[in-house]
Amino acid sequence: MPPVDDLTARARIRDAALAEFGARGFAGATIRGIAERAGFSPALVQHHFGTKDGLRAVCDAHVLEYFREHTASGIGDGRVGDASFIAEVYASSPPVVHYLARALVDGSPAAATVFDELVKLTERYLVDRPGLADARTRAIVFTGMRLGALVLHDHVSRLLGADMFSGEAAPRIGRATLDIVAPELLPEGLSARVREALERYEEGQGR
């Protein structure tokens, strides 16, 4: 096992790479810029990850695991109706979704993998009813709509008057998404539980 401080350094460098890639794209980010953001030397970054490609692979894997874990916890374990879970997601997700938005535009090697995984996760929780398009087609379209908003986050934020990833705007986006997605397409009671959790979250934030 690597020493604890070694593991901490790797996590800090990965988080710095997420932020740099999200802000500058893969072409614009540099090992030196990532090192400065992490508070380490470029040599240490290269020691742990080798090249920018190595860093990007680690970031891609981290983003994919983030979505898997939070989907399993939120829907699979029923935490999506918990205001504390909503707060946890809003606090932890901005670097991840900023990175994903840029990776989708830049064409990160894992962007297709992440998209496909999100389609699978979405399809798993859509309800089949007579007269509807098949669940996979609906999952593909819905995932494209949600990720499209991420890619267009500058415009979405501009019109909302707040950063769409912030605790101020994110609940508004959550409720709007629930308004657009008919409740009968989701597992029974899920839409109502999420709405209640969003309300409790906002009450806790003093809004």
Biggest beta sheet summary:
none
Head-to-tail CA distance between termini: 46 Å
Radius of gyration: 18 Å
- Beta content: under 5%
Number of strands: 0
The topology string of helices and strands comes to HHHHHHHHHH
Q: Stretches where pLDDT falls below 50 for ≥5 residues?
A: none
Structural classification: mainly alpha
Assembly status: single chain
Shape: globular
Number of separate helices: 10
Helix content: over 70%
Mean pLDDT: 87
Number of domains: 2
Organism: Allokutzneria albata
Protein name: Regulatory protein, tetR family
InterPro entries: Homeodomain-like_sf, HTH-type_TetR-like_transc_reg, HTH_TetR
GO molecular function: DNA-binding transcription factor activity; transcription cis-regulatory region binding
Features of this protein?
HTH_TetR; 10 helices; 207 residues; Regulatory protein, tetR family; Homeodomain-like_sf; globular; 2 domains; HTH-type_TetR-like_transc_reg
Describe this structure in words.
The model has no long low-confidence stretch (mean pLDDT 87). The radius of gyration is 18 Å and the shape is globular. Helix 5 (83-106) packs across helix 10 (190-204). The longest helix is centred in the N-terminal third of the chain and has 25 residues, at 4-28. 75% of the residues lie in helices and 0% in strands. The chain has 207 residues and is mainly α. It has two domains: 1-50, Homeodomain-like (Arc Repressor Mutant, subunit A); 59-204. It is built from ten helices and no strands. Keywords: DNA-binding.
